[in-house]
Amino acid sequence: MAQAPARAASAVRLFDAHCHLQDPRVAPVAPALIRAAAASGVARFAVNGTSEKDWHLVKRMAEDHPAVVPCFGLHPWWVPERSPDWMDSLRRFFAETPEAAVGEIGLDKGSRGRTIDFREQVEVFWRQLELAKELERPVSVHCVRAFGDLLEILKQTGPFPAGVLLHSYLGSADMVSGLANLGCYFSLSGFLTGMKSTKAKQMLKSIPLDRILLETDAPDALPKLDNVSVSPVPVHSSDADTEKHHKDSESQAATASNESLNHPENIHIVLKYVASLLEMPETELAELSYKNANKLFSYPGSKVHPEAGDI
Ligand SMILES: [Zn+2]
Description:
Bound molecules: zinc ion
Order of helices and strands: EHEHEHEHEHEHEHEHH
CATH topology: TIM Barrel
GO molecular function: hydrolase activity, acting on ester bonds; metal ion binding
Number of domains: 1
Structural class: alpha/beta
Oligomer: single chain
Protein name: TatD related DNase
Region (Disordered): 225-260
CATH superfamily: Metal-dependent hydrolases
Radius of gyration: 18 Å
Binding site for a divalent metal cation 1: 18, 20, 104, 217
Binding site for a divalent metal cation 2: 142, 167
């Protein structure tokens, strides 16, 4: 009798719901990172563009790698340097790439975001939320210290039947139900290791089980845990633009070395940490977060297809 092929080392399957493999700090080794992560059970990677400058890189990466789900969006940090026809350009990418989702877009009142006119951030965010609704695609949202504004804007523009992915969610437990009612999913990354564990636990336990996602936000959000060692990205830190492309964390130093760069295989560390706080078996959390991501990203035109049992 024919034997099933040996399974990958890991018995779990995972979906990295938000990362940036087009980032110049890791782009040269992205194929190797994707291969290594895939061998460990990571079946999909939602790769998010952040500005007009990198959308073409995301598009090409998705063409080269069947496992990459492309996402196009203008991140709040790059709002000041948008071109006058940024929205036309964004629409063109969606027209040419029917499998794309929207992201990364958002609001930021953190140390970096405070330097960027908030009214402009809101306007750019709003227009992209409307676009996501019009295209009926999920949208990946960055929110730093602006959850009150986010909830208000989502209430006014929502609901979002195609779903909103709150990436690297670090908001409070109290915010969860209001956001979930508007169609939000809560995507957890290595940044969670920087939150007090009692607070993180309370927040995690307030998330409906069908709204939990896992992500790496690679090359950012390297998980930092005392007893866990992470494998470095095999690149040299001579890449230019390190600071320019550093996103999502306010506190990161601009001088990233290889050791501080994250990569998708580290999603296993996020899985382990979140499972421990939720007091849930890792295999169960892997499967439910995979199914949630698969459902969210299986919109018409997507590379991702609904699984049996999903509606
Ligand atoms: Zn991101």
